[in-house]
Design brief:
By secondary structure, the chain is an alpha/beta fold. It is about 25% helix and about 25% strand. Bound molecules: zinc ion (ZN).
Length: about 300
């Protein structure tokens, strides 16, 4: 498969030139390739189902404005977020496709403030391949993510359908940090959708950027770490009235967590088999969660899952 590339050795590879999620439609040539000006901008609202095309959701708080770029369905609604503080901007993740990367750069430039840091939540390329189009010189990530990028970054980059640079990574320590005039709390969560995922809390906006710990009505990239993942989600449920900016789909609240736990609990016995029947699992999950986008992402994760 061309998405996460050769990180798991011995996987079957499809011919180059397509994003797996496009299901025969290369996003490069799709008509929903948008300039930022064409993106629908929604202020302060979340909606139940993500529209098929890319858009930006902006919310305004005393401490910061938060801009969430939500990719098109053809790119699994992968997100990037801009934290706009009084003195600058912080970008979290860089999108997947060159179009998303350019949209995100246009969003950053449209805000007219200096970009002070780029944070990378985890090592999966749907969150950093788009940085190539945006040409950010260096990104900050956790120590595990930095090591994974060093180990697997070039193979993942080579597996993308368009030329992609592996970003230069510097390690960001966890804890409280003030960036762009905004107080943030950075933490690292182990063994959920990826070996390590950075979370960024913005206490002044009652918001936590949790990226791929949280999929909102999008089929998940599953692993064999489902027990830990569910445990982490139960912990997030106790966070009270906060907004979660998620890695795939619309901003969410704790009210959406039971649905994601139900999804992971439904897929858990299906992937427990030593050699799971991938097509049957995807068909069953699509049947049970008919309104979820991007079943190709689930299929892709099953193709990458090592034998149990
Ligand atoms: Zn992702």
């Amino acid at each position: 498969m061309r998405f996460f590339g050769a990180f798991h050795a011995g996987q079957a590879e499809t011919p180059a030139g397509r994003y797996d999620l496009s299901k025969g439609q290369n996003p490069m040539t799709r008509r929903d390739t948008l300039s930022l000006a064409a993106l629908p901008l929604l202020h302060g609202a979340a909606q139940a189902q993500t529209p098929a095309t890319a858009r930006v959701v902006t919310t305004t708080h005393a401490a910061a404005r938060l801009h969430s770029y939500i990719s098109a369905a053809s790119a699994a609604h992968v997100t990037a977020h801009v934290i706009e503080g009084p003195s600058g901007l912080v970008l979290v993740d860089g999108g997947w496709t060159p179009e998303a990367g350019r949209d995100i750069r246009a969003l950053v430039e449209s805000l007219g403030k200096p970009l002070q840091a780029v944070l990378l939540s985890h090592f999966h390329p749907d969150h950093w391949a788009g940085l190539t189009a945006a040409r950010y010189p260096e990104v900050l990530a956790g120590a595990t993510t930095a090591a994974l990028m060093q180990q697997a970054g070039p193979a993942m980059a080579a597996a993308q359908p368009q030329p992609v640079n592996v970003p230069r990574i510097a390690v960001q320590a966890p804890g409280a940090v003030r960036l762009a005039g905004v107080d943030l709390v950075i933490a690292y969560v182990a063994d959920t959708e990826a070996p390590e995922i950075m979370t960024v809390e913005i206490p002044g906006a009652a918001t936590v950027i949790v990226q791929d710990i949280f999929y909102n009505r999008v089929h998940a990239y599953v692993s064999r770490q489902l027990d830990t993942w569910i445990e982490v989600l139960r912990g997030l449920q106790g966070r009270g009235e906060v907004t979660f900016l998620v890695g795939h789909g619309e901003p969410a609240t704790a009210r959406e967590i039971p649905r994601l736990i139900a999804y992971l609990e439904a897929v858990r016995p299906l992937v427990a088999a030593a050699t799971p029947d991938r097509a049957a699992i995807v068909a069953e999950m699509v049947r049970r969660f008919p309104d979820y986008a991007a079943p190709e992402l689930l299929a892709l994760s099953l193709s990458h899952m090592p034998p149990g």
